[in-house]
Design brief:
Layout (H helix, E strand, L loop, with lengths): L12 H22 L4 H19 L4 H11 L5
């Protein structure tokens, strides 16, 4: 949601945390690029940023679904 000044407003604390992690990862990727870091390290930072943004947009990965299932239910006992 955009505010009157054009700034983005985050309505939930978890959105802020996700956005912050995405920002940190993007800055890390930029730093690696400037310093000649390996492409695999840059890709990992970008992947982390993508996952954090996905938390805001509602993108759900299969690993997240399984993680939620196994963290909330006692399966196999």
């Amino acid at each position: 949601m955009a505010g009157l000044s054009g700034e983005v407003l985050l309505s939930h604390g978890r959105h802020y945390e996700s956005f912050y992690r995405a920002q940190v990862s993007l800055k890390g990727a930029l730093k690696l690029l400037r310093e000649g870091g390996g492409t695999e390290l840059v890709a990992e930072e970008l992947r982390s940023a993508q996952m954090a943004i996905g938390e805001i947009t509602g993108e759900i990965t299969p690993d997240e679904i399984l993680g939620n299932v196994f963290s909330r239910f006692c399966i196999g006992k």
